[in-house]
Design a protein that fits this description.
There is one protein chain. The protein is of the alpha+beta class and about 150 residues long. It has one domain: Ribosomal Protein S5, domain 2 (2-Layer Sandwich), CATH 3.30.230.10. The protein has four helices and four strands. The protein is globular. It starts with about 35 loop residues before the first helix and ends with a helix.
């Protein structure tokens, strides 16, 4: 399908990055990189380290997979979001989840791979994407510092 460009419209304010080895696939976050199911969340919450910053909490645990998943587990981290009804109605909860997933998608390559990450959400007004990115960066740094300071199991 060809794309029809209107010469009277200004270019998009945030075009996709070009060149320098940056490809469109770099910023993907497929469903396979999401944590799903009560059992998966429970495993991460039981064996991970936690940190809180305002209404957001994070629990990080090293990703455990089968031998065939070893290369994939080392490359990428999986994300899960735990957000309950007290946060607000479905519209508010889904907006917060979309913003958190987008923040993770854009920053996942700046973080070390091979971890399962669960974001815990307390009631709050939805923030901007930049505010969520800033909060998540601080939480990841704190959790990884705690994880590295723990003695190996």
């Amino acid at each position: 399908m060809t794309q029809h460009l209107d010469p009277t419209k200004p270019p998009h304010p945030n075009p996709l990055p070009q060149g320098e080895g940056i490809t469109r696939s770099r910023f993907k976050h497929p469903r396979t990189n999401r944590i799903g199911g009560h059992g998966s969340f429970k495993k991460v919450l039981d064996r991970g380290v936690r940190s809180w910053a305002g209404p957001l909490g994070m629990c990080i645990a090293p990703r455990v997979g089968s031998v065939s998943d070893a290369s994939d587990a080392a490359k990428s981290s999986r994300l899960g979001i735990s957000i309950g009804r007290p946060v607000g109605n479905a519209v508010r909860r889904n907006r917060i989840k979309r913003l958190l997933r987008e923040s993770f998608r854009l920053m996942q390559h700046d973080w070390p791979g091979g971890y399962d990450v669960v974001i815990l959400v307390k009631p709050h007004e939805p923030k901007s994407l930049a505010e969520y990115q800033s909060a998540l960066t601080g939480l990841v740094n704190r959790c990884l510092t705690k994880l590295q300071s723990q003695p190996p199991a």
